[in-house]
Automatic annotation (TrEMBL):
It is an enzyme of class 3 (hydrolase). Keywords: Disulfide bond, Glycosidase, Hydrolase, Signal. Pfam families: CBM_6, Melibiase_2, Melibiase_C. The lineage of its organism: Bacteria, Bacillati, Actinomycetota, Actinomycetes, Pseudonocardiales. CDD domains: CBM35_pectate_lyase-like, GH27. One of its GO terms (molecular function) is alpha-galactosidase activity. Its EC number is 3.2.1.22. InterPro entries: Aldolase_TIM, CBM6, Galactose-bd-like_sf, GH, Glyco_hydro_27, Glyco_hydro_b, Melibiase_C. Belongs to the glycosyl hydrolase 27 family. This is Alpha-galactosidase. The keyword Kinase does not apply.
Length: 524
């Protein structure tokens, strides 16, 4: 059970009985123990492509800046190189060979330098006969183990594996083969699948068992249209992200000069609320101070790196005014109010709409301006064109969360296929009158409590429940109206008087449609 707040001694002491009757199987992430939060670091491609500015001096310079400018201190770890590091042909032993003009001391020397700074080093190749550059550098297809062993011997900590010149070989086969080759080296290597979401079945359906992250889009470009297009493609895939396995809408363009500071803040905010990898794509030797201010915003980074590992979901989207919400490990919510239009507009939501109802008031911290204010539930801001206001929303008072998946379920299953839920899943009852979910609550003293049920209802029909306390009806047919989608969560409240000691709170479906998907019960 994950608790959002700790009760004071005078408040209720609550607990659940963990006896779900049915548990649905869950797809597990690649269990190499790596990338438990989205990787943070650097990749040169967005700023250099294959030009001669990409070389050993640049990569060492980036590692120096990570340390000297505090990027390492806020979580940036990986210094990665992309395509064009190798010679166009393998050596007589079949091994890949570094280009001596770019890397005169070899790749291992660069990796050693990066490691000496307390950072990690990443490399690139393709799951094909050649990489993506037209010069035709050798790829890893049919050389998986040889290349994995070579990378491990150089001290590689991260592999980006691209998709060019794949000869029509099945993507799952190609990427699984490299996964297994990396595992056999015995070296911990984060595995980035750069398949672009082109093949069927889609990479996000098999990626969690194969890699630590997978590209969901084609290459990003340094302009608003490209960036927001990548966000739109990625934001609908939240159900596939989890610790150790992340949707990747491509690297950051922040600092490359093609967008305004407002647009770059939106870029960074959306990547953070989508739990996307934060790989800097700008030459940090040349960027302005605004770039460092954006990239080092620790409040925004904390949203991306939240250990619960939830990707944010879209709560509402009307005319280019989009509200995102992300569940955080301590029970807070991150909320992004994002304006995809060119003119300023007011964007609004509520604590209930983001699945955080039941508190008398909430603290709203603007993660860019750092201003803090309180609200009784309304969340609203005037947002400039192409801008995003990012809040951290914290309930006041003493709230204890009891997850539905840890309660007693009479008829139904625990599922996790509709993103946006709290905890590890939600309860989906059978479609019938009578299924119930029952929580056990222990109160140190008798008193009034507000019950807040978190739920999703992707239909237009009300799915009411009777709420009983210790067998007595306390709320007849409490309404659980449609939320617009199964990935859109809301709340409904009821007030009860608990007795000292054990209390049984039961929600029982009263129509043939069964209950809504029940996510949690908050006690305040």
């Amino acid at each position: 059970m994950r608790l959002g707040r700790i009760l004071t001694a005078a408040a209720l002491a609550l607990s659940t009985v963990i006896v779900p009757t049915i548990t649905a199987p869950q797809v597990l992430a690649l269990e190499n123990g790596l990338a438990r939060t989205p990787p943070m670091g650097f990749n040169n491609w967005n700023t250099t492509h294959c030009t001669n500015t990409f070389n050993e001096a640049m990569i060492k310079g980036i590692a120096d800046i990570f340390v000297n400018r505090g990027l390492k201190d806020v979580g940036y770890t990986y210094v990665n190189i992309d395509d064009c590091w190798a010679l166009p042909t393998r050596g007589s032993d079949g091994n890949l060979r570094p280009d001596p003009a770019r890397f005169p001391n070899g790749i291992k020397a660069v990796a050693d330098y990066v490691h000496s700074k307390g950072l990690k080093f990443g490399i690139y190749t393709s799951a094909g006969t050649k990489t993506c550059n037209t010069a035709g550098f050798p790829g890893g297809l049919n050389h998986e183990q040889q290349d994995a062993d070579l990378f491990a011997s150089w001290g590689v900590d991260y592999l980006k594996y691209d998709n060019c010149n794949n000869q029509g070989v099945d993507a799952v086969q190609r990427y699984t083969k490299m996964r297994d080759a990396l595992a056999r080296t015995g070296r911990p290597i984060v595995y980035s699948i750069c398949e672009w979401g082109r093949s069927d079945p889609k990479v996000w359906t098999w990626g969690p068992n194969t890699g630590n992250l997978w590209r969901t889009t084609g290459d990003i470009a340094d302009n608003w249209s490209s960036m927001i297009g990548k966000a739109k493609s990625n934001r609908v895939l939240a159900q596939y992200a989890k610790p150790g396995a992340w949707n990747d809408p491509d690297m950051l363009e922040v600092g490359n000069g093609g967008m305004t500071a407002t647009e770059y803040r939106t870029h960074f905010s959306l990547w953070a609320i989508m739990a996307a990898p934060l790989l800097i794509g700008a030459d940090l030797r040349k960027v302005n101070e605004d770039t460092f201010t954006i990239l080092k915003n620790t409040d925004v980074i904390a949203i991306d790196q939240d250990p619960l590992g939830k990707q944010g979901t879209v709560v509402s989207n009307s005319g280019g005014l989009v509200v995102y919400s992300k569940v955080l490990a301590n029970g807070d919510r991150a909320v992004a109010l994002s304006n995809e239009n060119t003119a300023a507009a007011t964007i609004s939501t509520t604590a209930s709409a983001i699945g955080l109802g039941g508190s008398a008031s909430y603290s709203l911290k603007d993660l860019w301006s750092k201003q803090v204010r309180t609200t009784t539930g309304a969340i609203s801001a005037s947002v400039p064109g192409h801008g995003t206001v990012l809040y951290r929303v914290t309930p006041s008072g003493t709230i204890n969360r009891l997850e539905a998946e840890n309660a007693v379920l009479s008829q139904g299953v625990v599922e996790s296929n509709h993103a946006g839920f709290s905890g590890t899943g939600f309860v989906n009852t059978v479609n019938a009158v009578g299924p119930y979910v029952e929580w056990t609550v222990n109160a140190t003293q008798a008193g009034t409590a507000t019950l807040t049920f978190g739920f999703a209802n992707g239909t237009t029909a009300n799915r009411p429940v009777d709420v009983t306390l210790n067998g007595a009806l306390v709320r007849d047919e409490l309404a659980f109206n449609g939320t617009g989608a199964w990935t859109t969560y809301s709340t409904v409240t009821a007030t009860v008087t608990l007795v000292a000691g054990e209390n049984k709170i039961r929600a029982t479906a009263t129509t043939a449609n069964g209950a809504a998907n029940l996510d949690y019960l908050d006690i305040n």
